[in-house]
Design brief:
The complex is a heterodimer of chains A (about 170) and B (about 625). Chain A is α+β, with helices and mostly antiparallel strands and about 170 residues long. Chain A contains seven helices and four strands, in the order ααααβααβββα. Chain A folds into two domains: about 60 residues, Arc Repressor Mutant, subunit A (Orthogonal Bundle); about 80 residues, Glutaredoxin (3-Layer(aba) Sandwich), CATH 3.40.30.10. Helix content of chain A is about 45%, strand content about 10%. Chain B has five domains: about 110 residues, Glutaredoxin (3-Layer(aba) Sandwich), CATH 3.40.30.10; about 200 residues, NADH-ubiquinone oxidoreductase 51kDa subunit (Rossmann fold, 3-Layer(aba) Sandwich), CATH 3.40.50.11540; about 80 residues, Ubiquitin-like (UB roll), CATH 3.10.20; about 90 residues, NADH-ubiquinone oxidoreductase 51kDa subunit, iron-sulphur binding domain (de novo design (two linked rop proteins)); about 60 residues, Alpha-Beta Plaits (2-Layer Sandwich). Chain B contains 23 helices and 18 strands. In chain B, the strands form five sheets. In chain B, strands 2-1-3-4-5 form a five-stranded mixed β-sheet, with no helix packed on it. A five-stranded mixed β-sheet of chain B has the order 11-10-14-12-13. In chain B, a hairpin with a 5-residue loop joins strand 12 and strand 13. The termini of chain B are far apart. The model of chain B has no long low-confidence stretch (mean pLDDT about 95). The chains are: A alpha+beta (about 170), B alpha/beta (about 625). At the A-B interface, helix 2, helix 4 and helix 5 of A face helix 2, strand 10, strand 14 and helix 17 of B.
């Protein structure tokens, strides 16, 4: 939830649309088409595509026989779902209380400065998406930053910048 | 295979590994351990063992709770107590392998403590250390001791004895046993578990559901994650006992997607239960049938509320609805439903394993047993702890936690996350009990315990929590949706130097209105961090508003950076580093900060060589230009 900034979904040409659609259909195969499957279906489609394209939401609505507005409503209610593509690397800064008390704000500011984007945004080259998360539950190692699935604990602004530098090399 | 045979075999296997001539090495591989670098330690360890030609059994275990000392290893050689090594770096591994596994020097200089029978000179017993001595581990009984992906480890340590016992009792007898234990819900509200079960048991209807709430959303809390990662069967056994007691044959675990390792461990555990005949039809040869499904949350804090969670499982937006009817009457798909949180379930299995009387011997009159907390923030020893109810906050912070980090002064302790409150030093002797914490204005909560020191601004803490609850409000109730927004606006004004007379009174009034005007606990408790900080730290609010001063020197808008002309050596480092080009001064000349350009980023303070220490931060005083 939260106030999401207005984002523009990318223009997609028809061929891309068909590729997306077939990927969505593949994801739908293991579901029976019941209403209660809506959230798991959205999770699976996002897992496969990295985000939820408009064609996908429409197809899911048809498959589960629910109004498109309902699907859109759910997809925008839960923080996990994204309607625009994200970067190849997702950097998530924890803003839990343990991290906040130990200086998460300055880590976030350093990363924002380094990447030239604000939290919730993606770099124009689609390399990085910067996000904040309510809590990762690694509070004892605060402050924490998660890059893709790797958790980095006991962060400092210097260490955060180093992680970025290391990513650039590889 | 019957359960008793399976158990006999599990115990034989467990004892064989305990007395094996091959050394055993336990490594903490919970999310915290991995974040602290346990993966690298494990890799180095494997390489070093191979190089040295040493055969050893390596067991990956969950969190033992000494998070401050992660990564951790426990090395166990036959015939002597095991040795814990903490604060490990990969460079230390070759030394430990060479000295203690090849040689016979247990390296007391690197060891934290020993566990098991016997003594090793120069190393204290682990459970005699101040960090562990006051702790009683019931919910966390196996965390860090057993391989969580191995059901036989759990069974060998008394696991599923509780279920076996329950299945020989009548459902009502099981409920009575849980009532007798005095167990109260560990998710935060503290409702008596046995009574809650009774409602659902008594509700008419054949189909009933049971849910494990693993949507641990409070920022600053990770007890449930650690428990699920370290001992999933303790929770699952409790869930089965509850299902049998209320008459449910289908259960759900609602777990947040941010906990991928806990989800993996649960999936493995469910698979093994299936193989051992502990799920499905005719469990343990009785007439009890039970199935469990995992539902992954999709990132909405409000789904920790019972009715919102039910809506989410049904595939809807997680929005709470009015109660009554309570879930015990009409819950998931309109059927009677019982929801308890992870820690409650792990206590249930312990109660049935060891008896209600044993459990009730811990704790106080109204708060029985133990409670887990994630002790974090500005405390020397952060970690996952489990303490008997009735222990004081002081004993936790200064005993277990070792006091305030970096030698600073204590300011406040925050319990209960965004629903809880901040308590000052004068209340440090408050015992940890549902009633006494509530009377002080805080709550027991699910177990987040965040220590704050003198560098934490209490007004900004209130603003921080309101930012969270305001964003997480589902929007259904007007007071929660808009009232929290108004409160947040006022707090933002105060922390950025725009506070007005009357703001404090307005916050108090709004706070009460939001509490009264919200359906669920999210809105009903959202004002708590603001109300308690006003109650105990009103002087900080007043300093922000009338003196434009942040006593903790934290709120940027109220800070002034200047350079002490006596100390400045004119090295120019700060002027070059300043991103706003706000510092002027020639070589070997005293530098000056132009206050109209300064963005208060703090870079100059960080880069000024410590031997000069010329950059000074003040709050509330006008900048004096030298």
């Amino acid at each position: 939830m939260g106030i999401s900034r207005p984002v523009k979904a990318p223009e997609i040409v028809r061929e891309q649309k068909e590729i997306l659609l077939s990927q969505v259909n593949e994801a739908l195969e293991s579901y029976r088409g019941e209403r209660s499957e809506l959230i798991p279906v959205l999770q699976e489609v996002q897992q496969r595509l990295g985000y939820l394209p408009e064609v996908g939401l429409k197809q899911i609505a048809r498959y589960l026989d629910v109004p498109e507005s309902t699907v859109f409503g759910i997809a925008t209610f839960y923080a996990q779902f994204k309607l625009v593509p994200t970067g190849r690397n997702i950097i998530r800064v924890c803003r839990g209380t343990g991290c906040y008390v130990r200086g998460a704000t300055s880590i976030l500011e350093a990363l924002e400065g380094e990447l030239g984007i604000k939290a919730g945004e993606t770099t124009p080259d689609l390399e990085y998406t910067l996000e904040t998360v309510a809590c990762f539950g690694s509070c004892a190692l605060a402050p924490v930053v998660v890059v893709n699935d790797r958790v980095y604990g006991r962060m400092t602004t210097e260490k955060a910048k180093k992680i970025l530098a290391r990513k650039e090399e590889t | 295979m019957q359960f008793k045979d399976r158990k006999r075999r599990a115990i034989a296997q467990w004892e064989a590994t305990q007395s094996s001539p091959v050394p055993r090495i336990l490594i903490g591989m919970g999310t915290c351990g991995i974040a602290a670098g346990a993966g690298d330690i494990l890799e180095t360890l494997n390489q070093e063992l191979e190089k040295a030609g040493i055969q050893a059994e390596i067991i990956q275990v969950g969190c033992i709770g000494l998070c401050y000392a992660e990564p951790l290893l426990e090395v166990s050689k036959p015939g002597r107590p095991s040795v814990f090594y903490g604060h490990l770096q990969p460079e230390l591994i070759p030394e430990i392998v060479r000295d203690y596994l090849v040689g016979d020097n247990p390296r007391p200089d690197l060891a934290l403590g020993t566990r098991g029978e016997g003594n090793i000179e120069g190393i204290p017993m682990l459970f005699d250390l101040p960090v562990l001595k006051p702790q009683v581990r019931i919910a966390l009984r196996n965390c860090g001791n057993i391989d969580p992906s191995e059901i036989h480890h759990y069974i060998a340590n008394g696991g599923y004895d509780g279920l076996s016992r329950a299945l020989k009792m009548k459902p009502q007898e099981v409920i009575d046993e849980v009532k007798k234990s005095g167990l109260r819900g560990r998710g935060g509200a503290g409702f008596t578990t046995g009574v809650k079960w009774q409602f659902c048991h008594d509700a008419p209807g054949k189909t009933k559901y049971i849910i494990c709430n693993a949507d641990e959303g409070d920022p600053g809390a990770f007890m449930d994650r650690a428990l699920l990662e370290g001992d999933p069967h303790a929770v699952l056994e409790g869930l089965l006992i509850g299902a049998y007691a209320i008459g449910a044959s289908e259960g759900y675990i609602y777990i947040r997607a941010e906990y991928p390792l806990a989800i993996r461990r649960l999936k493995v555990a469910l698979q093994q239960m299936q193989e051992c005949g502990l799920l499905g039809k005719g469990i343990m040869g009785s007439g009890f049938n039970f199935h469990i499904k995992i539902k992954e949350g999709a990132g909405a804090f409000v789904c920790g509320e019972e009715t919102a969670m039910i809506a989410s499982i049904e595939g809807n937006r997680g929005m709470p609805r009015p109660r009554p009817p309570f879930p015990a009457q009409s819950g998931l798909w309109g059927k009677p439903t019982n929801i308890n949180n992870v820690e409650t379930w792990a206590n249930v299995s312990a109660i049935l394993q060891r008896g209600a009387g044993w459990y009730a011997s811990y704790g106080t009159e109204k708060s029985k047993g133990t409670k887990t907390f994630s002790l974090v923030g500005k405390v020397e020893r952060t970690g996952l702890i489990e303490v008997p109810m009735g222990i004081t906050l002081r004993e936790i912070i200064y005993g277990i936690g070792g006091g305030i980090a970096e030698g600073k002064g204590f300011k406040a302790i925050q319990t209960g996350g965004p629903s809880g409150g901040c308590l000052p030093a004068s209340l440090l002797d408050t015992p940890v009990e549902y009633e006494s914490l509530a009377a002080a204005g805080a709550i027991m909560g699910s177990g987040g315990m965040v220590v704050m020191d003198e560098s934490t601004c209490m007004v900004d803490v209130a603003r921080y929590f309101l930012t969270f609850t305001q964003a997480e409000s589902c929007g259904k109730c007007i007071m929660c949706r808009l009232g929290t927004k108004q409160m947040l606006d006022i707090l933002e004004d105060i922390t950025s130097g725009r506070g007005k007379d009357g703001d404090i009174e307005l916050l108090l009034e709004l706070g009460e209105a939001v509490k009264d005007g919200s359906l669920c606990a999210l809105g009903g408790t959202a004002p708590n961090p603001v109300l308690t900080t006003i109650r105990y730290f009103r002087d900080e609010y007043e300093a922000h508003i009338s003196e434009r001063r942040c006593p903790a020197s934290f709120c940027k808008a109220l800070l002034t950076y200047r350079i002490d002309p006596e100390k400045c050596k004119g090295c120019g480092i700060c002027a070059r580093a300043c991103p706003a080009a706000a510092i002027q001064g020639g070589k070997r000349e005293v530098h000056v900060i132009d206050q109209s350009k300064c963005t208060r980023c703090g870079t100059c303070l960080n880069v000024c060589p410590p031997k000069f220490g010329a950059v000074v931060v003040t709050s509330g005083e006008p900048a004096t230009v030298s």
